[in-house]
Amino acid sequence: MDIIRRKGGVLLLASIFFILFLGPFTYKLLFLKYPILSKFVENLWTIEVKIQFRGSGGQGIVRHHIPGDDVGQMVLGEEFVSRDLDFFIGKETGNTFVQWSGDRLKGIVHVFYRATVQTWPRTRGLLSSAAKEKDHSRISHYLITKPEMKSISVEAQEFLEGLPGKRETDLEKIEAIYEFLAYSVETVPFSKESSLIAPLKTKKATITQKKNLLIYLSRVAGFPARVVHGLTLGEVMRQAKIRSWAEILIEGTWLPVDVENRFFAQLPENVLILYRGDRLFMTSSGAEELDYSFTIKQERQWAFSLFYASATRVGSIFHEWSLFVLPVEAQQVFRVILMIPLGAVVVAIFRNVIGIKTFGTFMPVLIALAFRNTRLDWGLVLFSGVITLGLLSRWSMDRLKLLLVPRLSVIVTVLVIILAVGSLIGHHAGMYRILAVALFPMVIMTMTIERLSIILMERGAREAIKVSLGTLLVATSGYLVMSIRSLEDFFFAFPEVLFALIGIQIALGRYTGYRLMEYLRFHSFIEDDTGGKASR
Amino acid sequence: MVAGVGMWFDLLKKRGILGINRRNAGFMLLVNPRKYYPLVDDKLLSKQLAIQRGIMVPELYGVIRYHHEIRNVLTIAVSHDQFVVKPSRGSGGEGIVVIAGHGEGRFEKASGETISSDDLMHYISGILSGLYSLGGQDDKALIEYMVEVAPVFEKIAYRGVPDVRVIVYKGVPVISMVRLPTKESDGKANLHQGAIGVGVDLSEGITLLGVHHDRVVSRHPDTNHPIEGIRIPYWDEILEIAALSHEMTDLGYIGVDVVIDREKGPMVLEFNARPGLSIQIANQRGLFPRLMAVDAEKTEELTLEERIHLGQFIAQPERSRGKIERTSHSAFPP
User: Fold this and answer.
1) Which residues does chain B have within 8 Å of residue A522's beta carbon, measured at their own beta carbons?
2) Is a pLDDT exceeding 80 seen at residue A404?
3) Bridge partners of A97?
4) How far apart are CA A493 and CA A307, in angstroms?
5) CB-based contact A475:A364 (threshold 8 Å)
């Protein structure tokens, strides 16, 4: 029969498209060793510094350190947000800082700094290969012991000579000091002793004293030593505190030594280095009631930068012609564009297999794309809000009896006004995600409003609500599918998957089975058949 | 979950229900060449086509194509007390306004509501702008004869004219229903607007039970008059018109809407290239086995009369799934 023959032909075509996908895909997988999923990045953290102060009415300046790329850590992205202040980023003695400033500051001023950082455990091998000190001019600075301590340096010298253990190599010498401070000196919450070397005799010291003593003793022993400030990273940490440890230069390598947490010549991955030296983390002028806090969050994300690195390692035509070679902005655009066909498949499934009614064919995909910028919750609220306001304006115009095209033009204009006002409100309320309403597809929203109002008038509110909810349901599902990060990475690395999608779309095009909703539609006579319902 | 869905689908299948996907991909797309759609989508064209073939249609009083012609409706109104304004490319009965009478610049709609001549002209302007047309393109407004309800339907139609919908597959009328306007449907004969669909026995033209919003009914909700067992007048002619529409439109799967005028008898209102599937609910019968039975015949070799007989034969419930014995061209029983 011709139906089956035709259907078979279509399925054959669909399989050909599937093979077009499988060919390059398996080649990349087997011979170029592409990973199917981009690697899950562990130890990805968001660090947020929230600063708040009261403006004095004049100029206000706040300067604080920010993390930079370092041994075992890489800053992947940064955000600087403040409504009232300008900022610049500077470098000073190897540290990076940001300075915020503004004039005529009144009331409470908020500043946010946010960084996404990836960290790795820092072992000795990694440290000695990466952290070689190249700037020898600054080393002598880290050997200086303050003049008033001259008197005690003799005592310290004597103490060092009396330390137990093998002390032949430089490393062993420092290790002996570390062992003593970390294990032989008791940690006390506070101490009356003001002398730096008192703990050598009392065997009792505060954390700060221990750290200072470590640096001092190292310098006396002839090793450059410095203090490092950083954060301990945890899954979710509010109000995290800065802590510090020492770095001692041995054989050209700065080795981290932490007597408090007992790390010698290594640092775990849950430590973030902020800055080095004796300065304060934050300094300010003209900022009253200055307060700041750290919030740390562990991110669970697929970072595709690592994937890219692994994909381009091997030279191949597939790499040269992969989307990874595009400029980063074009890559970002393509990451979105490649997901659109997937959204289309979602719409096809909802419409042809489930039987959900929607406005227009691809309206849901466009709404889903807009949701990418607003996120789902705000997207649904904003979209419903804009459509409702647009409908109200459409209704109030109804009695004017305008011709179709001018009427649609009025709706477009009203929408633009709504979006502009909405963006301004969002800006002033500090709700930046509202700004994304400007990315809603306006012309399509206009058509939605027009169609919705006609459905409302001719088929009643029930039908209008049904179609609206259907559209939002499909848009939401489309958004959820299109925003799966690992799928996005997969599509970007294997764009040939689009052929497979064509195959699926063709097969869907010949799906002649029932729609799920048809069960409900024809429900009445199935019940009738089983004798359940009286028909007369 | 999947098993449950599969069970549902089996139930639908057992009842022979034609789903929208199968209608489209399995039948419509195969037998309805796209190029013939404009003939049925444009009511003006299909009306002209019907006239050529000698099929009765409601008389056309005038066509309004451009905005500057809108006032012509007032001229037409001078010589016709009653008329219908409809978009030429409208779908699903949308955009149709029935003027049952007028005077002193006021027009009375079939619903009893009166509108001013400005309202009427604005309405026509909406039609011309494509408000009701498929895809929103510019459209024409047709002004035509208002069909008068045949006596047999008077008690079961609320302020409107019932029409008989026949689905014709490869020239064979396979299923039919009468659509009765209700108060809810505002005198319109469209099921989704609240009209009642009443199944019709194809051989006799006698009404069966009805369906209102997918619920089975035996009486008209507004008049409480029974809707079952009514003999539709001119039934043989209606089936003939339906079967003939296949040759007329060159479409293999088509819905033909016929109205019965009190005096002029049956006339074609419109053709529909995408007829809905609710007709199955109205008849409490699935369409799929009947379409398969038609596919089993060499319909192109049959005469008009044979095709009608074939349709009536396969529509008989007890035989609908049986194989049709054929010894010669016209071997199936009349």
Assistant:
1) 12, 15, 17, 280-281
2) no
3) A65, A90
4) 9
5) yes
Of B25, B125, B131, the CB nearest to A512: B25
In 3D, which of A491, A60, A120 has the Cα closest to residue A269?
A: A120
Domain count, chain B: 2
| Residue A226: strand pairing partners | A247
Last residue of a domain, one of B117, B144, B171: B144
Q: How far apart are CA B99 and CA B114, in angstroms?
A: 9
Residue B10 lies in a domain: no
**Residues from A in contact with B at Cβ < 8 Å:** 1-3, 6, 352, 355, 401, 403-405, 454, 458-459, 463, 509-516, 518-519, 521-526, 528-529, 533, 535-536
Mutate to test the interface with A, among B15, B20, B125, B278 (most CBs of A within 10 A): B20
Contact of B214 with chain A, judged by CB distance below 8 Å, is answered with yes
**pLDDT 10s digits, B254-271:** 999 999 999 999 999 989
> Is residue B105 located within the same domain as residue B178?
no
| CA pair distance B222, A348, nearest whole angstrom | 40
Is residue B174 within 8 Å of B164, Cβ to Cβ?
no
- Domain limits for position A400: 338-493
A to B CB pairs, distance under 8 Å: 93
How high is the pLDDT of residue B175?
Answer: 95
Range of the domain at B95: 61-144
Cα–Cα distance between A198 and A218 in angstroms, integer?
16
In the prediction, which pLDDT does A533 show?
39
Q: Tell me how far apart the alpha carbons of residues A337 and A78 are, in angstroms, rounded to a whole number.
A: 25
Residue A500 has pLDDT above 90, yes or no: yes
Q: Measuring CA to CA, how many Å separate B46 from each of A156, A204, A336, B39, B69?
A: 110, 104, 46, 5, 22
Q: Which of B196, B216, B294 to probe the A interface (max A CBs under 10 A)?
A: B216
A450's CB contacts (< 8 A; 6+ apart) are A394, A407, A408, A411
Lowest mean pLDDT among A408-412, A456-460, B43-47: A456-460
Asked if residue B49 is part of any domain, the answer here is no
Answer whether B317 touches A (CB < 8 Å): no
Q: Are residues B273 and B201 in the same domain?
A: yes
Q: Which residues of A touch B209 (CB under 8 A)?
A: 535-536
Residues A75-100 have pLDDT tens digits of 877 778 888 888 999 988 889 999 99
B8 vs B55: CA distance, rounded Å: 43
Nearest to A352 among B11, B12, B21 (CB): B21
Residue type, B15: R
Same domain, residue pair A344 and A290 = no
Most distant CA atoms of chain A, gap in Å: 112
Number of domains present in the structure of chain A: 3
The shortest C-alpha distance from A500 to chain B (Å) reads 21
What's the 3-state SS for A490-534? Answer: HHHHCCCHHHHHHHHHHHHHCCCCCCHHHHHHCHHHHHHHCCCCC
pLDDT of residue A530: 45
Closest Cα partner for A72 from A254, A280, A238? Answer: A254
* Cβ–Cβ contact B30 with A under 8 A: yes
- Residues A349, A486: one domain? yes
Buried b (16+ CB within 10 A) or exposed e, B147-161: bebbebbeebbbbbb
Show the tokens assigned to B234: 């001119």
Same domain for A371 and A464, yes or no, is yes
Interface pTM, i.e. ipTM? 0.74
Report which of A223, A189, A184 is spatially closest to residue A209, judged by C-alpha positions: A189
Query: What is the least distance, in Å, from the CA of B51 to any CA of chain A?
Result: 31
| Strands B196-201, A253-258: pairing kind | unpaired
What band does B330 get if pLDDT is binned at 50, 70 and 90?
Answer: very low
Bridge partners (DSSP) listed for residue A267: A122
